[in-house]
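> call design_seq(struct)
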C-alpha cells in the first residue's frame, strides 16, 4: 500500500501533468500568451506562481519517496524558465520514481520522518505520507491546474485526470 501511494499514484498524476502542460503550450500560442506570463501566473498576490507550484509538485513526489525509503534526497535546483523546462523536471521526477521498488518501503510506515521546516518534531512514515505529503502534493497540483483555468486555458477535469487511469476491459458480454 505504501508503494502505490508513494510511487504509483504520484507517477500517474505527473504523467497527466506533462500532458496538461503540453496542451496549454499549444493554446498559449493560439491565445498569444507568453510562457513568462504563464510561469508567473498565480491565483492571488500572496500565492506562489505556476512555476513554483510545479517545482513543489515534483519535489514533493521525489522527496517523499526518498524520505520513506531512507535514501538520500537528490535535490533539484529551481531554475526552470520555460514550460519545456518544467516538463523536463517532471520527467526527471518520473524517472527517479521509476528507480524505486516495493522493497524500498518495507519499513516505511514506522520510520521517523523529520522535516527541516518543522524543527523539534517528527512523524512516523505512514502518518507523514497520509497527513502531510499526499495532501501537500495534491494541494500544489490542483493549485497549478486552477492557475491555468483562471488564466483562461480551455482545460477540464479530464485533462487533470489524464489518460493513465487503470481501467480494465469488461469481460462480460
Amino acid at each position: 500500500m505504501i508503494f502505490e501511494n508513494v510511487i504509483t499514484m504520484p507517477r500517474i498524476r505527473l504523467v497527466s501533468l506533462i500532458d496538461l502542460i503540453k496542451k496549454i503550450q499549444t493554446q498559449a500560442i493560439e491565445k498569444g500568451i507568453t510562457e513568462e506570463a504563464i510561469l508567473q501566473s498565480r491565483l492571488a498576490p500572496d500565492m506562489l506562481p505556476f512555476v513554483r507550484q510545479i517545482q513543489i509538485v515534483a519535489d514533493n513526489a521525489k522527496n517523499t519517496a526518498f524520505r520513506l525509503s531512507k535514501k538520500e534526497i537528490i535535490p533539484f535546483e529551481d531554475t526552470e524558465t520555460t514550460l519545456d523546462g518544467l516538463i523536463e523536471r517532471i520527467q526527471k521526477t518520473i524517472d527517479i520514481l521509476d528507480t524505486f521498488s516495493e522493497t524500498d518501503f518495507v519499513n516505511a510506515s514506522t520510520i521517523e520522518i523529520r522535516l527541516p521546516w518543522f524543527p523539534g518534531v517528527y512523524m512516523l512514515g505512514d502518518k507523514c505520507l497520509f497527513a502531510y505529503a499526499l495532501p501537500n502534493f495534491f494541494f500544489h497540483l490542483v493549485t497549478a491546474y486552477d492557475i491555468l483555468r483562471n488564466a483562461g486555458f480551455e482545460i477540464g477535469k479530464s485533462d487533470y485526470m489524464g489518460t493513465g487511469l487503470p481501467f480494465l476491459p469488461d469481460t462480460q458480454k
